[in-house]
Amino acid sequence: MRNVEVRRREQREQEERRREPEAVAPAPKHARLWHVTLSVSGERTPLPDVRRALEQLAHDHPFLLTSRYAADHAEIRYWEEARDLHDAAALALRLWGEHRHTAHLPPWEIVGLEVIDRETYHHRVAENAGPLPAAPVGVHPFRGRSDE
């Protein structure tokens, strides 16, 4: 009699488990590093003004690796610490707007965004298939475009 009760209880538990919604994978508890490339463009701006603004942004945002710029566009590469891709992308998309006034950034719009995890970044670098390591670190004009 006891065995019958145990089997019935087990069957009820199995049936309840089948009815439960599939669990969503839990979000990582710890932040990870994400390599971000943010591209912006807009109206032509004097090069010294663009350089000063990007240097101020680098001062305000300590994880900034490198910035390349021309009179009408710039590319910023940096490491972002975030829980997941969604958070890293959201932070990246806010970066230019949040620092526009304090760093005196040009009123350009974001035209490109790439966010990859650290492992993917290192795989790409090892395979010569991704962004080169940021060397030299800092703010630099695009090569061959210093006349802009």
Layout of helices and strands, plus pairs?
Layout: H1 2-19, E1 32-41, H2 47-60, E2 64-69, E3 73-82, H3 85-99, E4 109-117, H4 118-126, E5 138-141
What does this molecule look like?
By secondary structure, the chain is α+β, with helices and mostly antiparallel strands. It has one domain (33-141): Alpha-Beta Plaits, CATH 3.30.70. It contains four helices and five strands; from the N terminus they run H-E-H-E-E-H-E-H-E. The protein has helices at 2-19, 47-60, 85-99, 118-126; strands spanning 32-41, 64-69, 73-82, 109-117, 138-141. It has a five-stranded mixed β-sheet. A hairpin with a 3-residue loop joins strand 2 (64-69) and strand 3. The longest helix has 18 residues, at 2-19. Residues 1-26 are annotated as: Disordered.
Largest sheet data: 5 strands, mixed
Rg of Cα set:
24 Å
Number of domains: 1
Average pLDDT level: 82
Count of strand segments: 5
Q: Write the CATH fold name.
A: Alpha-Beta Plaits
Unreliable residue runs:
17-27
Kindly report how far apart the N and C termini lie: 89 Å
User: What is the level-2 CATH architecture name?
Assistant: 2-Layer Sandwich
Strand content: 25-35%
Helix content: 25-40%
**SSE sequence, one letter per element:** HEHEEHEHE
